[in-house]
Amino acid sequence: MIVYRVCHNGQDIEGAPLFDSPRIIATNQPDHPEATWFYDCIKGRGPSYPSLIEQIQKRQHRTRKQLREQQQQLLANNTTDNTNTATTTITTPLYWNIVIYDFTDVTYIPWLLWYTGTITEQIMQATIPLPDEENDTNNNTKTTNTTTTKIDTKNTPLTRYQASQYVRLITRGTVTGRNTAPMVIHRNAVYKRHYGRKYNFTPAITENHTLGGVKHLHFEAREDILLAIDEAMTQYLPATAAQEHQQSEIYLNNSIFTTNTNNTTSSPPPTGGGTLVHVDPVRGLARPIDVAHFWQSNQSGVAARVRGLVSRRIEKIQHPTRNLTIITHTVGNKGRIGRNNVQHEYINAMLRCKIIVVAQRDRYEDHYRLLETMLTGALVLTDPYVRFPWGVVHNETVVVYQSMSDLKEHILYYVDQKRERLRIAAAGRQLALQHHRRRHRFDDLLLGDWEQRDEYGVSLSAP
Fold it and tell me: DSSP letters along 204-253, please?
């Protein structure tokens, strides 16, 4: 698949290319006849970029001009031809696939639907001949004493339904109405009442023909975090791998050494180091910290009051036979600097935890923390999602807590249940590695099936 990125002002957070997939080829040619246009709503807001509609109109203008020149040239060439009849087809399209990519926190869905509808109308209008082109079309059949030339431009007017099939939307905004902040007041409240609902896109797709399809966008497992985990793990693994290898009761059934691409067991790492590619840190790392939630208990803020509540509740948990080793504070830099850069202190701390608790922001579903903690091989306890990333399932790849009392019960249970904890943690880590990296996400979003939809009109994802 060939993709033209309409708005591109540099590389993304971790400095990696956006389309990290061998199946997707990026082009810098906006008029490439086979290219799908990819419009990033965040990067497209900058003043240095004209609006998407304006860029569509400019390409259509260039295409119309090119079509007229080709028609005139073909007519001139065929005038001197000795054949009796010549039929020439010009296939340069006035419409092409356009994908709107919305990665924003605050998504106003009615505006997005209005925007995609505007693009659909522009595609419809582009196929209606202009007055001078109608005259050209009438004169496109030219007869001489020996030659009849007919030109077919293959740009017949489209219906609204046909035009809408060229417009697709990828957005985080398929969930609306989330507000978990009341849990801070009603501390035993159940999440189900607060975590939002699915937006119904079916009327926009099947009735209003505003767009051709919608896919839900999840945060990915960042490549820079994965590489940092790889590097940090080598500092801890050599001294503990042999011990964990010998003590593991289920080593013969689930080796700490993963398999390579040829489905043969990889050799153990040499003395002095190992890499994340060959060694599974779920069983190979010593984890002296029982449970961690990387958020200050006294830090609330307007967007993360529940996170502060989670830390306070963890601090009050008492194990019946021993003291728990816990972390309830941030590690490394905070804010945008902390989130947009690799924090090695944070990575090192995660690799030493048996259980890591994560909580989403009060009003926005999904975050980077879920998949990056799954990469570390710790057991991840997460609050509920309306739309979980593909394969994230309670008691299989993560553990979902529905309330603060539920969170306490899960922590006290899994901190002592090593076999069960390691099973879920290993499955979660493999899911993140094999299905939720950047290459997997865009293969699914751009190349995956758009036709199979759920009852809310959102195309089903299955990387």
Answer: IIIIS---SEEEE------HHHHHHHHHHHHHHHHHHHHHHHHH-TTTTT
Number of other residues whose CB lies within 10 A of the CB of residue 242: 13
Average pLDDT of the segment spanning 433-438 = 91
Asked if residue 280 lies in contact with residue 325, where contact means CB atoms within 8 angstroms, the answer is: no
- Gap between the Cα atoms of 220 and 436, Å rounded: 6
User: How far apart are the C-alpha atoms of 366 and 172, rounded to whole Å?
Assistant: 9
Tokens of 37: 């246009």
Structure confidence at residue 51 (pLDDT): 82
Q: Which phi and psi (to 5°) does residue 3 adopt? A: -130, 130
Per residue in 289-312, pLDDT tens? 999 999 998 876 667 889 999 999
H/E segment holding residue 462: none
pLDDT for res 14: 45
Q: Which helix (H) or strand (E) holds 48?
A: none
Residues in Cβ contact with 394 at an 8 Å cutoff, skipping those fewer than 6 apart: 400
Q: Is the Cβ–Cβ distance between 398 and 383 less than 8 Å?
A: no
Measured distance CA(292)–CA(284) in Å, rounded: 19
Reading the block at residue 209, the tokens are 């023909």
Question: Rounded to whole angstroms, how far apart are CA atoms 71 and 155?
Answer: 13
Q: What is the pLDDT of residue 243?
A: 46
The reported pTM is: 0.81
pLDDT at 419: 93
Query: With bands split at pLDDT 50, 70 and 90, how would you rate the model's confidence at 250?
Result: very low
Burial class (CB in 10 A: 0-12, 13-18, 19+), 84: exposed
Spatial distance between the Cα atoms of 275 and 237, rounded to a whole number of angstroms: 9
Taking the C-alpha atoms of residue 338 and residue 349, their distance in angstroms, rounded to an integer, is 15
pLDDT of 256 strictly over 50? no
HSE on the CB side for 400, CA within 13 Å? 15
For residue 40, give both structure tokens. 């990033």
The distance between the two most distant Cα atoms of the chain, rounded to a whole number of Å, is 104
| Placement of tokens 């830099």 in the chain | 333
Residue 35 amino acid letter = A
Give, in degrees to the nearest 5, the angle at Cα 221 between 278 and 202.
135
Tokens 């004209």, located at residue: 50
Residue that is written with structure tokens 């080796």 in the block: 255
* Runs of H (alpha helix) within 279-334: 281-284, 305-315
| Range ranked top by mean pLDDT from 105-109, 248-252, 360-364, 388-392 | 388-392
pLDDT tens string 67-84: 888 778 877 776 655 555
